[in-house]
Specification:
Distance between the termini: 76 Å
CATH superfamily: Bacterial extracellular solute-binding protein, family 7
Strand content: 15-25%
Largest sheet: 8 strands, mixed
CATH class: Alpha Beta
Number of domains: 1
Structural class: alpha/beta
CATH architecture: 3-Layer(aba) Sandwich
Oligomer: single chain
Radius of gyration: 23 Å
Shape: globular
Length: about 375
C-alpha cells in the first residue's frame, strides 16, 4: 500500500511540473538580415509572441536567406522542414497570378494612389492566399526605382543591358520584352553577387529595401522613377497555424500584423531618407528624360491589358483596380480645382484575420 501511495504521489508531482501545453514551433525563413531595421522588428515580434503566449508559440526565424531562395523555401515548406517564409507576389505566380496585380509596371503615379487601391483590394488578396493554404499578416511595399551601374535616363539606356528579373516573374518578363529589353531571371538571393560580378547591370527595387539588403553597395547610380509597386509579406501554412488556440492565433495576427504595418508605413515615409542614404553613400541620382514615364506607361497600359486577355491574370481584377485609380484621380482633381489640399497619406485598413468573402473576389488566373 505504501509503495502504491509513493508511486501515485510521484506521478502527481510529475504532472504538476509538466507544462500545460507543449510549445508549437513555427519555422519561417526570410532574406532580411537579422541586424537590419526590419530584422530587428521581426525579432522583437518573435520575443513578444513567445512572452504573450507564455511559451506556447515559438516563432523560429532563419534570417539572411540561409534557407535558400523562395523556391527552395517553398519546397522545404512542402516537406515540413519549414512552415512559412517572407515572400513577394512573384513567388506565387504559378498558383496565384492575381497576387501580383499591384506590381504591374507603370500603373501607379503616387503612393497615395496605391494606398487608396490597397484599402479596397487587399482583403481579396489575403483571401486568395488563404484559399491556397496560407495565412498572412499584411503586406508591406513601396515603389521600386532603378539601381544601375550605368546612368539610366530612358529606355535607350537600357537597351543591350543585363536587367535583373525575379525568378518566375512572367509578368515583368513580358513587360520587358514588350519594351524590347532582355531580362535576366535569377533568384532574389543572387542579386548582390550578380551586381558585383557584372551578371546584372540594372535592378529595380524600393530604396529602403536596397539599403536593408545592401544592394546599394554594388551600384553607382539610381533613377528616381516609380517603375513598379513592390511588396513583401510573411505567409505561414494554414494547417500549422490552425493548430494554435484561438487566443494564440489572435496574438500572432496582432503582433505580426503590427510589424508589417510598421514596415509598410516606414518604407513609404522613409523613401526620401533612403534615397538620401543612397546619395550619401556615393551613388549618383539620375533624373529621367522629360516625358519618359508617360511614354513607357502608354506602352505598358496596352501590354497589361493584353496580358490579362491572354489569361496571365484576371481582366476583371485589372479593370477593378483601374477603376479605383480613376476614382482616386477624379477625387484629387476636384480637390485641386476647389483649392483643397491633397489628403495626407491614406491608412490601409485590412482585417487579415478573418477576411469576409466578397462577391467580386477573383482568385484564379483568368476570367
Amino acid at each position: 500500500m505504501i509503495k502504491r501511495l509513493l508511486m501515485a504521489t510521484s506521478l502527481i508531482a510529475l504532472i504538476a511540473v509538466a507544462p500545460l501545453q507543449a510549445a508549437t514551433q513555427i519555422k519561417v525563413a526570410t532574406i532580411v538580415p537579422k541586424a537590419s531595421a526590419w530584422g530587428s522588428k521581426i525579432d522583437a515580434a518573435r520575443s513578444e509572441i513567445k512572452s504573450r503566449t507564455e511559451g506556447r508559440v515559438d516563432l523560429k526565424v532563419y534570417y539572411g536567406g540561409v534557407q535558400g531562395h523562395a523556391a527552395k523555401v517553398k519546397q522545404k515548406i512542402r516537406i515540413g522542414q519549414l512552415h512559412g517564409g517572407d515572400f513577394t507576389p512573384t513567388d506565387f505566380q504559378d498558383k496565384l497570378p492575381n497576387l501580383n496585380i499591384y506590381g504591374l509596371p507603370f500603373v501607379f503615379e503616387s503612393i497615395d494612389e496605391v494606398n487608396y487601391v490597397r484599402a479596397r483590394m487587399d482583403e481579396m488578396l489575403v483571401k486568395s492566399l488563404g484559399d491556397e493554404g496560407y495565412v498572412t499578416f499584411g503586406f508591406a511595399g513601396d515603389f521600386a526605382i532603378i539601381l544601375s551601374n550605368i546612368p539610366v535616363r530612358g529606355l535607350g539606356d537600357l537597351r543591350g543591358r543585363k536587367v535583373w528579373l525575379p525568378e518566375g516573374d512572367d509578368i515583368s518578363d513580358r513587360a520587358l520584352k514588350r519594351l524590347q529589353l532582355v531580362p535576366n531571371s535569377k533568384p532574389l538571393s543572387d542579386v548582390m553577387t550578380g551586381l558585383r560580378t557584372g551578371l546584372f547591370d540594372v535592378v529595380a527595387v524600393p530604396p529602403a529595401a536596397a539599403v536593408v539588403l545592401q544592394w546599394h553597395t554594388a551600384v553607382k547610380y539610381f533613377t528616381d522613377m516609380p517603375v513598379i509597386y513592390a511588396m513583401q509579406f510573411m505567409a505561414v501554412q494554414k494547417r500549422v497555424f490552425e493548430k494554435l488556440s484561438d487566443t494564440d492565433q489572435a496574438v500572432m495576427y496582432e503582433v505580426l500584423g503590427n510589424v508589417y504595418a510598421e514596415i509598410n508605413s516606414e518604407s513609404q515615409k522613409d523613401a526620401k531618407n533612403a534615397k538620401d542614404a543612397l546619395i550619401n553613400s556615393g551613388i549618383e541620382s539620375i533624373d529621367p528624360d522629360q516625358g519618359e514615364f508617360d511614354r513607357i506607361r502608354e506602352v505598358m497600359t496596352e501590354n497589361n491589358r493584353d496580358m490579362a486577355t491572354q489569361g496571365l491574370f484576371s481582366l476583371e481584377l485589372l479593370e477593378q483596380m483601374q477603376q479605383h485609380i480613376s476614382d482616386y484621380r477624379k477625387i484629387e482633381s476636384k480637390k485641386l480645382a476647389s483649392g483643397q489640399n491633397s489628403p495626407a497619406e491614406l491608412e490601409i485598413i485590412s482585417d487579415v484575420k478573418d477576411p469576409a468573402p466578397q462577391s467580386n473576389v477573383v482568385t484564379n488566373g483568368s476570367h
